[in-house]
Amino acid sequence: xxxxxxxxxxxxxxxxxxxxxxxxxxxxxxxxxxxxxxxxxxxxxxxxxxxxxxxxxxxxxxxxxxxxxxxxxxxxxxxxxxxxxxxxxxxxxxxxxxxxxxxxxxxxxxxxxxxxxxxxxxxxxxxxxxxxxxxxxxxxxxxxxxxxxxxxxxxxxxxxxxxxxxxxxxxxxxxxxxxxxxxxxxxxxxxxxxxxxxxxxxxxxxxxxxxxxxxxxxxxxxxxxxxxxxxxxxxxxxxx
Length: 240
Description:
By secondary structure, the protein is of the alpha/beta class. It is 39% helix and 22% strand.
């Protein structure tokens, strides 16, 4: 079983991913991919350690070479990889300051292969595509590669698997919303859904296809379906 969860910073995706992983067969492994470089990174690591305390995860350090985690694990089981975002940064930006432009395709293929070999896996990635800021050419290239990996992972799971998240948490979920008539032709950025409703739009479904990297500046067509993640009470409010 493979799950792919993408969401904004502090959206609750890591806790939701833990709950999903714990509902899957043991043993449970947490693949730690973040390479701390500053105080903010160290705070993230400390917060995640506290959130996992007592959950029964075995932590495997895996900053690069994701397939090696299968050899580190004493036996096959359920793997929680948090996050794809950090793993790509480690693979793409080398310690000597150079950039590995082959990292994106290689990592995408390795992650898909990992999902095929692992008994179960939950992938977590940051949704970094809708704030509208200009981060410079190198960072934009990185975001583009991350989006490419997200598409590959989405292709590795069925749409029904993605929506299985709905039934696996009493605090968070994923909900579908048919685009309201008043929203037709408007963009995700223009609607400012995260600020107004406290949820993240993680995909747009149209004509039986899912776009897991929706363009925040692309007008939303009539009849499309928004896929949102967030706290259940926020989703209820959104669905009205």
